[in-house]
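Appendix B: complex inputs.
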Amino acid sequence: MSSWETVIGLEIHAQLATKSKIFSSSATAYGAPPNAQANLVDLGYPGVLPVLNREAVRMAVKFGLAVDATISRRSVFARKNYFYPDLPKGYQISQYEKPIVEKGRLEIVLEDGSRKTIGITRAHLEEDAGKSLHEDFQGLSGIDLNRAGTPLLEIVSEPDMRSAKEAVAYMKKIHTLVRYLEICDGNMQEGSFRCDANVSVRPAGQEKFGTRCEIKNLNSFRFIERAINYEVARQIDVLESGGTIRQETRLYDPDKGETRSLRSKEEANDYRYFPDPDLLPVALDDEFIESVRGTLPELPDEKAARYVEKFGLSDYDAGVLTASREMGDYYEAVVAKLGGHEKLAANWVMGELSAALNKEGVEITASRIDPTRLAGLLARIVDETISGKIAKDVFEQMWSDDKDADAIIEAKGLKQITDTSAIEKVVDDVMAANPKQLAEYRSGKDKLFGFFVGQVMKATGGKANPAQVNEILKKRLTG
Amino acid sequence: MTELHHHTLAELAAGLRARRFSSVELVTHFLARIERSNPELNAFITVTAEEALRAAEAADKRLVAGEGGPLVGVPIAHKDIFCTDGVLTTCGSRMLSNFVSPYDATVVERLARAGVVTLGKANMDEFAMGSSNETSWYGPVKNPWDPKKVPGGSSGGSAAAVAARLAPAATGTDTGGSIRQPAALTGLTGLKPTYGRVSRYGMIAFASSLDQAGTLTYTAEDAALLLGAMAGFDERDSTSVDTPVPDYAAALDQPLAGLKIGVLKEFFDKGLEESSATLVREALAQYERLGATLIEVSLPSLPLSVPTYYVVAPAECSSNLSRFDGVRFGYRCENPADLLDMYTRSRGEGFGAEVKRRIMTGTYVLSAGYYDAYYLKAQKVRRLIADDFVRAFARVDVLMGPTSPTPAFDIGAKVDDPITMYLNDIYTIGANLAGLPAVSIPCGFVGQLPVGLQIIGPHFAEAKLLNVAHGYQRETDWHKRIPRGYE
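Resulting structure:
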């Protein structure tokens, strides 16, 4: 069996978080009743004209600057012509030959810690179409045009990815970036961040790309990975049995875990692109671009590098903590309150806190424990008032009420036992109560050390200082 | 006896302010004329009698209080391409035969704010595509000078209404000559302003980079009055230009001595009918007597204007008309079987032959494999044409020539020969391609049929253009003639 190389390019549509639509003054807020947010311009009534939303341009430029791209001083809107009921004008206003952003790049970090640069061919502005709803209507389709006209930034990568994992890493990085930049809320359930994958395979070593298929309807990171893997396997299968790949669009079915053909890309529409005569070319000067540059926040990579350098965190930890601006902000607030102990804080934010947030399905901004309270808890570990293990119980308690760590430790009498003689006494009691295990340990069964630790902790209600317990047990057990 | 409909718009406006008559009287007078003559001429698709009288009453109140500007209480007709809130807006098409617009076009809004009263919506070639007003779903319009002849198009209804004195003025639109050519064929002053001078918001789009709203009036003075109210930047139209609107009326009487007139060599070709050519040359001689100098000017790319236009305009219209699909408004076929059936039958039944012809042409020139050879090439040639004009205006103040190759032709004579029909626009199209302002004024008659002189100016030179037109109208009275039966 010859070896195959996978080639992947991603097209991401990020809905820009402007208040009004890209070419009309309608609101963009999600969840309104059908067609409540569609005015005459969105509906493509006779005689209406588009007017460009300046904020959408700002956001596109912001993105371009964040990925080191070229910002076009002159970009042009073009009409993409096709007929569909959710496209009121019979054309979508997009950008074709002259997009606003070109030739950017983004560095991704893979699971093994290695880094790779993915090229971004272009990013352009366009308007979203409406929604077609087929259920709930007997033999008809319902058209909701609230979404029609919402600004999209279409981000097209170079076909630089070579595995599903790389694709996921890239998609996650873009997702993090657009949220950092506050240009997109990244809500995949609501459809504000959508991804299509172009997948092909070629024999390892071959320079020419194989025929690619486009997979649509990928609205979660998990789906992307599965869909790509399925598609790669499918294509290899076809090629190895002597067949050829038909260039087509495929849909990912998450229930069946497979991709299936939607339509042939070869027979696809001729969109008859031409520059939209209702809109002027977008002319940007240096002053404007620099003013946008001035609004860039600290980017995820910069922040992560700062964590590694300043806080001594590993690349991996820094990466997790900077996955969102909110998590980074939370973490730094904890560190500030704690006055250091960055690794401890990192472990707790990535560990207990994240687990609690995930369980409840809330974002870190809605955390029941704020940085101050968490820092209060961690301070008690630092000063050895309680052990790490006890702290977890206290954390759980803090999650369900709003008391401080100190109050809970006090109320439940959880202070750590650090009195050496008290611990020695317990150790002696435990050794006396377990002569069999003692004999076995002393005759070489080292594994039983853990048993004795457990017994001491049980006898002290978990409050004995673990380091001291270890030290004393070691001394006493070896006799 | 001088009847109310013998007056120019400016005279009526002055009369209203002097309270010699009221707006209600004026509107009633014209509504009666419309009722009598429209069945014959077919100039109006919709007559908004009730609304007009209500607006006239409101105008009279303002007049009594001495409020508002010169246009308060003056009645006009709007070409049925302008969206009018609560009023049927058909664009001369079956496709919009049920379309009551939910909003006013900027042009309509601005004129209404200035106190103008709308008498009704004027007939037009379907979706502004035509040079004879024979493609309208609502039937052809007759030329008041000779009912067997066309009034020109696409603003044929506007022209016929004003020429027959059913309204003292009308709005029109001009994409390839659709104001100027009907003005020439009906003895009116037809003004197409610079592209971007007047807002296109609410003006149903035919060819977005060529369309422009303008006026059909008896005189340049009337055009100046209306343009002053219509023109100006509109933030709802990204192609409208933010440049101040001059006082067009103030510039009208500037003397014409020293005016340098470029006579377009390419316009006096074998396509121009002899008698029309003679009248145009006489008009040029008249200008010389007023102190102007004639300079022969050649615009070598100009003969390419018709093919250029007939690639660019259909391309843009094929896209602009995609929104007419039976889904949200307009004509929908009965009992569609599925989506494709609804699209094909609604559009097949809703559009007329000329519209379909242009959509097909436009789709073709934009299609993959042909875009470069047709659309892109045409836009490049357009640049050459525009540059030719710029070079000419370095040497002259205005350009002059005929508006139309012939006077009005018979209804039905050219309707089966699209190419011959397209050639009616041969002199007017250049100004649209270059975005230049141009006006047609009456300069004589061939028998009973009027002939027009076209004056083209540099960008935003409407004041100059109207001044030059006005100078001629002070010395001549072609523009005062009224067709037999409509006095």
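The mean pLDDT of chain A is 92.
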